[in-house]
Amino acid sequence: MINMPNKIFxxxxxxxxxxxxxxxxxESRWQKLKDTKVNIYKSGPYIGVQRGQYTNFEIGFxxxxxxxxxxxxxxxxxxxxxxxxxxxxxxxxxxxxxNKTGRADFxxxxxxxxxxxxxxxxxxxxxxxxxxxxxxxxxxxFNLLTPLANFKTVNTPFLSLRFFIMKKRNVDFVN
Length: 175
What we know:
Strand order of the largest sheet: 1-2-3-4-5-6-7-9
Shape: rod-shaped
Largest sheet: 8 strands, antiparallel, barrel
Structural class: mainly beta
Number of strands: 10
Number of helices: 2
Oligomer: single chain
Strand content: over 45%
Mean pLDDT: 87
């Protein structure tokens, strides 16, 4: 006859062995959650003001996509917009990209720009560095434009403050 401590030992031994055999069969919920990738897509208009030597008002559209991770999430964005200086009658068309790595890091970007006063025109590239918080995006940049002696009423260094209005948001879970 088996005494009580031996019965308890045999029962615990059988539980441990059965758990060891069946534990390798399935992935745990945590493993599935760890391997899941989350992508967030946002799009919508933005409004803003650019201040340098002259003041320009901006309006445009922006599309953002973000890879959500525990460490160093990445945000990418494409934007297209129009800026207008009412006093000097200068309009600008801009198309650009910026990247943000991390949650509280700076944004680094570049844009292509076309400026005209309806008589003369200039094209150029605009490197920018900025900081994004909630819907606001503060950027500092420098317009590197083609030289033209008759058309000087544009900002070279500038600060820009934009507000992004999210109209559409999609979240994708990829296993």
